Amino acid sequence: MIRIAAVGDVHVDKDVLGRYRPALEQLPDVADALLIAGDLTRHGTVEEAQCMAQEFGGLDVPVVVVLGNHDHQSDQQAEVTDVLREAGLTVLEGDGVVLELNGHLLGVAGAKGFGGGFAGACASKFGEREMKDFVGTTEAIADRLGDALRSLECDALVALTHYAPVPETLVGEPLEIYPFLGSYLLGQAIDSAPTALALHGHAHHGSERGRTPGGVPVRNVAHPVIKQAYNVYQLLSEDAGAGLVRV
Amino acid sequence: MTHQLDEYMEAEIQRLLTEHGAVAEQGITVQCRENLLVLGGEVESAERRDEICRQITANFPDVQVACDIGIVRAAAPTEVEEIS
User: Fold this and answer.
1) Does residue A242 surpass a pLDDT of 90?
2) ipTM for this prediction
């Protein structure tokens, strides 16, 4: 059995310091790792990354993150990544990591992702250069995510993105902005590997649960959606009965 | 200039809340009532909620604002979901 905690869109800055910490101190009792689905900061500055490192660093469980669109706002994503890595966090972007937890191997492949929309209403690589670049960006990210997922040898495989791979977890958001919230290409990448769980954030007004066309469970763990410091998901259960169990 | 509660103002506010460096929020809803602007959604701190209201009041001084923005709770969970 592996238990993973997950949250996204924590948007840390000075004013948030200490808010998550009491719940994070309990993590080792309830989960084996913490995954964070992007938008770690408000504007993607080094100072905010230092706040993020202070709030989510030094925990007794491994912490794996991807960046979100907010973390790109100041064009300092490389420096933000450096600060987080120096604090011991694993930052993924089109690559993966395998963690040994409880005698099992947990594989996590992660990427920020990008937009483009979903089947029936998706953007195409056609027309203006800007439009081709938009769709091409998502294609490249999804390709790297798929490659990373298929490359990991592990007992349980988790996909971590900021943007959504399916429209079901966007329900509650205005339909008009779905193309800015995710892409079916991410879902296709997730379905190309034996993924056990896909986690994303970004959609603050979205819904918690969905599935990819290939049947992979998807969870939107954006903080305003889960309304607690993190959710905990149990994988590789010896007891196959699904549902909520007490911590 | 007197501001009218219309779609142009709604769009202007939405962009202000995202693009203004002191706010940077994409998850705030803006609803125009007859003579009232209602703000919704959740943010990470009371300071951020207050800054949103301050920015709107400063930029649209003749608009009456109702702030229903909440602060997202950050308690530890009490349940685990089994994935199958």
Assistant:
1) no
2) 0.91
